[in-house]
Amino acid sequence: MPKIPGVNPEQAVKALEKVGFRMIRQGKHIIMSDGIIRLTLPRHNPINAFTRGAIARDAGLSPEEFKKLL
Questions:
Q1: Which residue in 1, 23, 27, 47 has its CB near the most CB atoms, within 10 A?
Q2: Do the Cβ atoms of 11 and 54 come closer than 8 Å?
């Protein structure tokens, strides 16, 4: 399996904001919602590829779509 670089949390927030998610609150994790779906993003840098894929799937995006938004 090829190594896929992680993404930093600020980039992930900006990408999710492009598809309608808004930040609800932040602390050790960032909580975002689009009114229906609630996502939890870790604040550690970088967010690894597996976690990034899970966030994309939970947001209703494919990993490729999420990567294009970055």
A1: 47
A2: no
Using CA atoms, how far residue 8 sits from 19, 36, 42, in Å, is 18, 25, 10
How many other β-carbons are positioned within 10 Å of the β-carbon of residue 33?
A: 15
User: How confident is the model over 3-37, as pLDDT tens digits?
Assistant: 556 788 999 999 999 999 999 999 999 999 999 99
In this prediction, residue 6 carries a pLDDT of 75
Cα separation, 36 vs 58, in Å, equals 11
Identify the CA nearest to 58 among candidates 36, 29, 37: 37
pTM check: above 0.70:
yes
Q: How many residues does the chain have?
A: 70
CB 12 within 8 A of CB 47: yes
